[in-house]
Amino acid sequence: MIHPMSRRRFLALSAAGVGAGFGVISVSSCGSDSSSGSSNSLPIASPDKPVTLPITSDNEPIAADQASEAGPLRIANYSDFVAPELLDKFASETGATVEVSTFTDDIEALSKIASGALDVDLLLSTAVDTLPKYVATGLVQPLQKSYLTNYDNLWTSVQDPFYDKGGQYTVPYTVFSTGIGFRNDLVAAPLEGDAGWDALWDGQYNGATGLLDSYREAIGLGLQHAGIDDINTQSKDDIDAAVAELKKMFAATNPRVDILGYQSIPEGTTAVNQLWSGDILLALGYLPDGTTAEQLGYWQPPIAKRVINNDAMSIMRKAKNPVLAHQFINFMLDPENAAINQAYIGYQSTLNGFEAETLIEAGTIPTNLANALVTKDDFAQGLRILALPLAADKLWQDAWSALNTGA
Q1: What is the pLDDT of residues 53-68, one digit of tens each?
Q2: Among 144, 145, 232, 388, whose CB has the most other CB atoms within 10 angstroms?
Q3: Entry pTM
Q4: Homologous superfamily of 178-307
């Protein structure tokens, strides 16, 4: 039996403003290094076709040199995806308290922000493939860089991202790959070679596997297992082939479908779990008594097939505290604060000093999990999840909804 999708999750997929609900928005399928496009029509970016997102006359950066608002600063974020210590520290430094509202995935975040159910100043974890929808619908405001005095602490390679040339709307938050986390002591043999993901289809792990509750990641895995490496395909035949692979997985191993692998792998509830790389590092904090870091493992495919992404911080157009939101972004770009945050959330910062080689040399990451770090070369070469035209995005979402609900 497939682990069921919650009713709330199903309704979010059905009503989210990224499919039929945003049908009036045209997101074109051709990218270019230009600012062409209107408020409801944007080109789709890719590494070889970067896009400068438009800034419209009715949505310009806030003025420089303004006094900070009193707050509270309201943030939308994944659960446990910012160190509480930093929220207290920011409040101590600014006098403004911080309130965090959480969401379960990027679809829910976009849907609730668009509807006003999430009335926040700052989205701390913006999926960059959803950014065109936020910009096209006027949900985010362009940044006033004069407040971001720590901006140059970022890796040079992320200061001018292909999806937002010039970083006009976003500041990178974390970087991660997608792979398979596992418990060494609960698998027949450590996952190795080019096809470690086969373990998710291996019947000996029936009831002990997990799949990310992310329509892009899960269907992307199905595509690659079917031999299709275009993880941004717009072909219904390709998506059908991916779903067919996932149905075989569900029949063979009955995976949990959630984003809690960082808990279930260390606890041994799952032995093999599709994970983001940051989750296997976060799992170190969930090891039960009597287990050690050496019992954790992380597998990822060769770089030509490896999905690598980053998320980003963005400020809402209707932010009541835009100066404070800029100040928080700048606060997160301080290396001392980034170190506190990475130690808590597991995910790798994109600041200078947080390169994979530096972290390994410093001994902050167990050697058996060093492959969960993303090198700058990997970041440049990996496969990226890109925005999709609305019709194609709806194909993906409809396929994922049907798969999870058994339709």
Answers
A1: 999 999 999 999 999 9
A2: 388
A3: 0.89
A4: Periplasmic binding protein-like II (3.40.190.10)
